[in-house]
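Suppose a colleague, Dr. K., hands you the sequence of a protein chain of 280 amino acids and asks what its three-dimensional shape might be. Before reaching for any lab equipment, you can write down a predicted structure in token form. Begin with the sequence itself:
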Amino acid sequence: MRVTQKARLNRLFSNNGCLDVAIDHGVCNEPSFMDGLEDIGKVVDQLVAAGPDAIQMNYGNSDLLQSRPERNKPALVMRIDMGNPYNDLRHRSMWAQLQNAEEPIIGALEMDAACVVVNLFMLPDEPELFRQCVANIAATRAACSHYGMPLMIEPLVMLPNGVRGGYQVDGDTSKIVTLVRLAAEMGADIIKADPTTDPADFHRVIEAARCPVLVRGGGKDDLKTVLTKSAALLAQGAQGLVYGRNVYQHAQPGRVVRSLMTMIHDGVGAEEAWDLYQSG
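The predicted structure, expressed as tokens, is then:
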């Protein structure tokens, strides 16, 4: 591992864990994801005050974090791709592409990101979408190796749009494990993985990854349910969480961040984290 890569990973992981709050949803072109992100500057202010390990953003808004003077602000994780699988209706052509195909991580280097993240979509009957993701990852892996930038791969096993009315995650353990293994084989330094339907199966995802695994949050849920599921997944070996809507769409995002941070870094359980949230 190059020194620059290790230095960047050290900015993400403290006490062997990481809470990455994702607010990179603007490139998804899905209106429901924008609820709570209308004033992106205010959201960044709230998150910096709450103090997660990282904030996941796109190039166009990353200056709101990186221009701040605080030395102990959260690390920047930069999303460098975009695609159209998130909408309710299936598009005639499904696609995913890097925002800069010629120099995939140039924006991340400019903004001093600690890591970049790229999708690996697995959607039924969309082999071309999958092929595009593989090509995106291959190009990004080469650039990351050249510059010492950690690569987070986000394997997404998705249900057909019509099953539950729009973009939904398929929690099938065998499918998730298989796609996570592919991400690992392609050279992921970190994997942002779907939760398995049964959290007790998640150790199989950890075994397949052979690198730090952060659990992705998906759609907004009841907070107590989120904390309970998070505790179970962390107990299976996840080293952290990447949550977006379950933080920024919450009425008290700072409290949510503090509760999740205690779970990741102090090993507290779901009930204690819930009590911490309620206490303010």
